[in-house]
Specification:
It is a single chain. The chain is α+β, with helices and mostly antiparallel strands. Helix content is 40%, strand content 13%. The protein contains 19 helices and twelve strands. The chain has an eight-stranded mixed β-sheet with strand order 5-4-3-6-7-10-9-8, sandwiched between helices. Strand 9 and strand 10 form a beta hairpin. Helix 6 (165-176) runs antiparallel to helix 19 (504-515) and helix 10 packs parallel to helix 17 (471-492). The longest helix is centred in the first third of the chain and has 24 residues, at 2-25. This is PiggyBac transposable element derived 5. It comes from Ovis aries.
């Protein structure tokens, strides 16, 4: 028995080495945040987060399923429905069990930063690739304008003095500091409690910070032509998008998803029930297109809840056509570049994937009969037999370049793709159960989505903890959080990282110090 256990232990490194070689060929990087610990060591594919596991289970078990026994590539599918009418209907719709090999989409671009930053570049240099001085100066102008109009309407405020550019940078620095201190209230900096910080508190008084916070605006007033509910923050989002586009070229593989923007877990664990009831629910949904090789967020889309109409947040969560609208918005600048986009069940649909393919965008998505738009898909592939097949077996149908895969692994998982050949085989590597065979599309989907799950686990730790009541301000600070994380990713890919190897927490602390104009250049350890 002991001898068998020793053989298994000897086989484990070989399996992991094989997996690493395979995932390196998929161009997935490791440890983007430069931190050690159980959440960041090794390839993220081996330690999918609990959230991703529960999501996968929901996608596989949320509906009654019927699936024929699996087959190898090129062999007939014995588990396909035997009813002649069903087969004729599928053939008439263009679906066939005959598989054809197809080359992967060509991609000759080189992803990464578009400009070489010097080794002496500071944290604020990377941040200002996305939030430059001209954007901050506009915030100064709009804040002063709003303060003036506010006082004209509601009475003079003798304690107010027009804000300056250095003060606006310090204001941003104070709020960003909550992303590393995880303090619910920015005002704790000036308190004598656990979260107080004397060095930061000396830069600006609490009274001055509160005045700037009261009048802070990106756009002071609505123009007569403006109808969008996010008009107070949309110019900043547009500027941020321009900075993302000009500073970074993404890799071929990207993911559309909702990043983790829930409440800070420290606050949830320590607050009272009364405080929880007082919190307002988010009135918007934030979606991103994200480079799955680096974690860099390429594009942001904010869907605002503007009432109970058909385009509200509740409808967005339940209607696949609205998720398709989100996908189109996120991919409007991706046409003609042969990107491979990975999607979740709410976005995956045959109609959308065929539309994207005409634009030179290829897709690989997880299907769910409950969450996905299954229009045009063969019914025989959306159901399963009473007796499940062996683990790792699969069945495939093709229509043109589109492949519909049903793969079994303690549950049925269905994938729709036009990015990977159905003839190519891959494997899922598990530490305990070893290698589970699967089509290459399944392996690629699992690897890239697991990487994004791991990124989210790290990323959510560094969200700005300041929670304003106004929706546009919530969107603004979430966008600033994304900008800081993107800045750190560029820093990790630059020569400056080899001079001072800051972790993500140290980078955030250094950025705060530079925004506040402090002389100290040594991050706390």
């Amino acid at each position: 028995m002991a001898e068998g256990g020793g053989a298994a232990r000897r086989r484990a490194p070989a399996l992991l080495e094989a997996a690493r070689a395979r995932y390196e060929s998929l161009h997935i990087s490791d440890d983007v945040f430069g931190e050690s610990g159980p959440d960041s060591g090794g390839n993220p594919f081996y330690s999918t987060s609990a959230a991703s596991r529960s999501s996968s289970a929901a996608s596989s078990d949320d509906e009654p399923e019927r699936l024929g026994p699996a087959r190898g590539p090129g062999s007939p599918a014995p588990g396909a429905p035997t009813a002649q009418e069903s087969e004729e209907d599928e053939a008439g719709a263009g679906w066939s069990s005959t598989l054809r090999d197809r080359p992967p989409p060509r991609f000759e671009d080189t992803g990464g930063p578009t400009r070489k930053m010097p080794p002496s570049a500071s944290a604020v240099d990377f941040f200002q690739l996305f939030v430059p001085d001209n954007v901050l100066k506009n915030m100064v102008v709009q804040t002063n304008l709003y303060a003036k109009k506010f006082q004209e309407r509601f009475g003079s405020d003798g304690a107010w003095v027009d804000v300056t550019l250095p003060e606006m940078k310090a204001f941003l620095g104070y709020v960003i500091s909550t992303s590393t201190s995880h303090c619910e209230s920015v005002l704790s900096i000036w308190s004598g409690g656990f979260y107080s910080n004397r060095s930061l508190a000396l830069v600006m008084s609490q009274a001055r910070f509160e005045k700037i916070l009261k009048y802070f605006h990106v756009v002071a007033f609505r123009s007569s032509q403006t109808t969008h509910g996010l008009y107070k923050v949309q110019p900043f989002l547009d500027s941020l998008q321009s900075g993302f586009d000009s500073a970074f070229r993404p890799s071929q593989t990207q993911v559309l998803h909702e990043p983790l923007i829930d409440e800070d877990p420290v606050f949830i664990a320590t607050c009272t029930e009364r405080e929880l009831r007082k919190r307002k629910k988010r009135k918007f949904s934030l979606w991103v297109r994200q480079c799955s090789s680096t974690g860099f967020i390429i594009q942001i889309y904010v869907h605002l809840k503007e009432g109970g109409g058909p385009d509200g947040l509740d409808a967005l969560k339940n209607k696949p056509q609205l998720h398709s609208m989100v996908a189109r918005s996120l991919c409007r600048n991706a046409a003609g570049k042969n990107y491979i986009i990975f999607t979740g069940p709410s976005i995956t649909s045959l109609t959308l994937f065929e539309e994207f393919e005409k634009q030179g965008i290829y897709c690989c998505g997880l299907l769910s009969s409950r969450k996905s738009d299954c229009t045009g898909l063969p019914p025989s592939m959306l159901s399963s037999p009473a007796t499940p097949p062996a683990r790792g077996q699969h069945s495939i149908r093709m229509k043109g370049s589109m492949s519909l895969i049903c793969w079994y692994n303690k549950g049925h998982f269905r994938f729709l793709t036009n990015a990977y050949s159905p003839m190519q085989q891959g494997a899922i590597i598990k530490r305990r159960s070893g290698e589970i065979p699967c089509p290459l599309a399944v392996e690629a989907f699992a690897a890239h989505l697991s990487y994004i799950c791991k990124y989210d686990d790290k990323y959510s730790k560094y969200f700005i903890s300041h929670k304003p009541n106004k929706t546009w301000q919530q969107v603004f600070w979430f966008a600033v959080s994304i900008a800081v994380n993107n800045a750190y990713i560029l820093y990790k890919m630059s020569d400056a990282y080899h001079v001072k190897r800051y972790s993500r927490a140290q980078f955030g602390e250094r950025l705060v110090q530079e925004l506040l104009g402090l002389e100290d250049t040594s991050p706390s350890l």
